Amino acid sequence: MIAKTSIGSDFHGAIHYGAGYHLDGTIIKGKAELLILNNIVSQDPKGIADEMQQEASYGRCKKPVWHTSLSWKPEEHPTREQIIVAANSYCQKMGADPTDHQIVVYQHHDQPHRHIHIYINRVPTDGGPALTTSHNYARNERICREISQELGFAKVERLKDGQLRHVMPNQLEAQQVVQLAIRKALKAKSNNPAEMERRLKEKGIECRYQLEGGRLKYSSYCYQGVAIKGQDVGFTAKQLQARLDKNMLMDENQKTKITGPVGKPKLKW
Questions:
Q1: CA–CA separation, 210 vs 230, rounded Å?
Q2: Which of 151, 177, 212 finishes a domain?
Q3: pTM for this one?
Q4: What is the per-residue burial (b if ≥16 Cβ within 10 Å, else e) of 73-95?
Q5: Are 58 and 188 in a shared domain?
Q6: pLDDT for position 10
């Protein structure tokens, strides 16, 4: 397996190429297949690119487009599921946590060998630093070697919590809508399960939470009659509770800065 990475500034050209479009805007039938769509609601290339460009505008990174082509040898024949696992693993190992980055993966069918195109928004959705590009060549070699050894292309490894997950076609819309709604609620500083549930209900999403001592122990959701597990939208109950706790701590720290440690307004001299 070989990886080649390039960094750019425009998601529109990159995503349209990944989706199998000619320069004149016409689609190349049968060339591309969408495998993974993370933290994005749109399904069409323009909508996907617009969302990624918008998210990138919140950061100061001048080249937010990360594009990696991942190719297998002609004699290697990984299954579709193995390819998805490899893409998931690559993103994780490169530092693109799927809970904090927009990620799109297409498989191309215009060559005899298996190959995919991975697009990552270097600007994370949580407002943190941009994904580093240092030592990409060396990291690509190491990561490809690790993934090949881990998979062996003999069996499909079960996805770990927090990784990008492949869902059934009828769950795809629910996955994207719920995932985006959770992220927006976290950005709005939701800091407890009840607040999260209230915000998601406003978006037409039913939360099916199990609590223990006021803390999340299990999470699943239902959108337009389609049920989906918390782990399939990038947030296990444990991960979501950790993000809520983080918001709670930030809120408490902010209040302390404003009122002072004993709850009295700070005097200005």
A1: 12
A2: 151
A3: 0.61
A4: eeeeebeeebbbbbbbbbbbbbe
A5: no
A6: 94
